[in-house]
């Protein structure tokens, strides 16, 4: 989320100008806006002009609306804000009811009478984070390469490069060049901690040499200066295999992805030993959180970003409560190596600060 202008202070009135850049930014916006706030955005409205009194014409306007209600639409990644216009204009009388649609890459202004600590923190966290990815994976298989960004509960396929069918080798110069171009476009070492080039055979090593040679030729310092963070790993399968390999885990041990995998392994071990230091299922996890016992919350992306707004809000509130209590929250993407196993445990589980054996009596 991009913040263009900010004039606010904690527990004071204030205004901020925002441009949502990702679909998840709209979810933040949905939770940030409250009834009574004023949202100002570009919109269109049918009006009767003097030149066409008998026919309504649609004109572009910028309208400040005092919010009465708002809805989040996950499929289109938009927020619809309904309320009454607070300023009279040439085309719209003060008090007229209007609906604004907030969407990706379209700016708007949000004014609140009071910016409380929760709203300030949500705005700050969303505006400061980038994609949240800290691992890039270049997965090269026969005739194609895929560029993934992994982290913060998301796995994004950024680019898919196909080798020319007229060439005998997928590791041709043109194929490597196209893969190199995708690498330069999507891998930002300001946020990416590690890059994994994975393939069967020697292709991974060949591409790494090509990547570093091309970076040197073009004087791309960001790649040259970070070559130690670009490693090669053998892989015969898909991304899940890459992320579940012990050797790969050692290479990326400081990344968020590795933290997620280690946390799930710890969960599995604790559940197997029946120590009472772990639990799963919504009721058990909520009961543990009521006792402030959660050290780490593990949750699938399907729940955390559910298409059902009530479900999504429920687990957003749970995650927020865990963070406020000093716990960590790990969101597992559907492409994560452990996501399917976590889904089998209802999709939500927790590592606990202290044993709670009586949770076994709670219905999952």
Q: Uncertain regions: pLDDT < 50 for 5+ in a row? A: none
Mean pLDDT: 85
Largest sheet: 7 strands, antiparallel
Q: Specify the CATH architecture of the largest domain.
A: Roll
Any idea of the CATH class of the largest domain? Mainly Beta
Fourth CATH level, the homologous superfamily of the largest domain: Pelota, domain A
* Radius of gyration over C-alpha positions, nearest whole angstrom: 25 Å
Beta-strand share of residues: 25-35%
CATH topology of the largest domain: SH3 type barrels
What proportion of the residues is helical, as a percent range? Answer: 25-40%
Q: SSE order, as H and E?
A: EEHEEEEEHEEEHEHHEHHHEHEHHEHE
* DSSP summary, beta strand count: 16
Total tally of structural domains: 3
Q: Helix count, per DSSP? A: 12
Structural class: alpha+beta
Shape descriptor: globular
Measure the end-to-end span.
Answer: 37 Å
In spatial order, strands of the major sheet run 1-2-7-3-4-5-6
Explain how this protein is built.
The protein has 364 residues and is an alpha+beta fold. It folds into 3 domains: 2-128, SH3 type barrels; 135-251, eRF1 domain 2 (Nucleotidyltransferase, domain 5, 2-Layer Sandwich), CATH 3.30.420.60; 256-361, 60s Ribosomal Protein L30, Chain: A, CATH 3.30.1330. The chain has 12 helices and 16 strands. The protein has helices at 23-32, 117-128, 173-186, 203-218, 221-224, 239-244, 246-251, 256-273, 282-290, 301-304, 309-324, 339-344; strands at residues 2-7, 14-19, 38-48, 56-73, 78-85, 97-103, 108-112, 135-141, 144-151, 154-162, 194-199, 230-234, 278-280, 294-300, 328-332, 348-352. The strands form 3 sheets. The chain has a 7-stranded antiparallel beta sheet, covered by helices on one side. A 5-stranded mixed beta sheet has the order 10-9-8-11-12. Strands 13-16-14-15 form a 4-stranded mixed beta sheet, with helices on both faces. Strand 8 and strand 9 form a beta hairpin. It is globular, with a radius of gyration of 25 Å. The model has no long low-confidence stretch (mean pLDDT 85).
């Amino acid at each position: 989320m991009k913040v263009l202008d900010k004039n606010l202070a904690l527990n004071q009135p204030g205004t901020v100008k925002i441009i949502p850049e990702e679909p998840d930014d709209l979810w933040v916006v949905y939770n940030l806006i409250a009834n009574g706030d004023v949202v100002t955005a570009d919109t269109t409205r049918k009006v009767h002009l003097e030149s066409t009194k008998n026919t309504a014409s649609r004109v572009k306007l910028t309208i400040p609306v005092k919010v009465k209600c708002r809805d989040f639409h996950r499929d289109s990644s938009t927020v619809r804000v309904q309320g009454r216009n607070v300023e009279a204009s040439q085309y719209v009388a003060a008090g007229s009811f209007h609906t604004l649609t907030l969407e990706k890459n379209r700016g708007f202004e949000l004014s609140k009478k009071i910016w409380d600590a929760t709203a300030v923190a949500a705005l700050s966290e969303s505006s400061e984070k980038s994609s949240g990815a800290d691992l890039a994976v270049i997965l090269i298989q026969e005739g194609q390469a895929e560029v993934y960004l992994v982290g913060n509960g998301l796995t994004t396929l950024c680019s898919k490069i196909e080798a020319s069918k007229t060439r005998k080798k997928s590791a041709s110069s043109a194929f490597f060049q196209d893969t190199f171009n995708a690498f330069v476009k999507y891998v930002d070492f300001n946020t990416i901690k590690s890059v994994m080039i994975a393939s069967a055979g020697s292709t991974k090593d060949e591409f790494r040499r090509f990547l570093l040679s091309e970076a040197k030729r073009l004087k791309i310092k960001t790649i040259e200066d970070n070559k130690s963070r670009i490693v090669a790993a053998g892989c015969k399968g898909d991304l899940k295999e890459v992320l579940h390999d012990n050797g790969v885990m050692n290479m990326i041990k400081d990344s968020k992805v590795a933290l997620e995998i280690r946390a799930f392994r710890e969960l599995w071990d604790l559940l197997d030993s029946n120590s009472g230091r772990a639990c799963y299922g919504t009721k058990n996890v909520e009961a543990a959180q009521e006792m402030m016992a959660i050290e780490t919350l593990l949750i699938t992306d399907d729940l955390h970003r559910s298409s059902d707004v009530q479900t999504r809000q429920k687990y957003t509130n749970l995650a927020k409560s865990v963070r406020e209590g000093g716990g960590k929250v790990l969101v597992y993407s559907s492409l994560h190596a452990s996501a399917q196993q976590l889904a089998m445990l209802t999709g939500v589980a927790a590592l606990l600060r202290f044993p709670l054996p009586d949770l076994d009596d709670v219905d999952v």
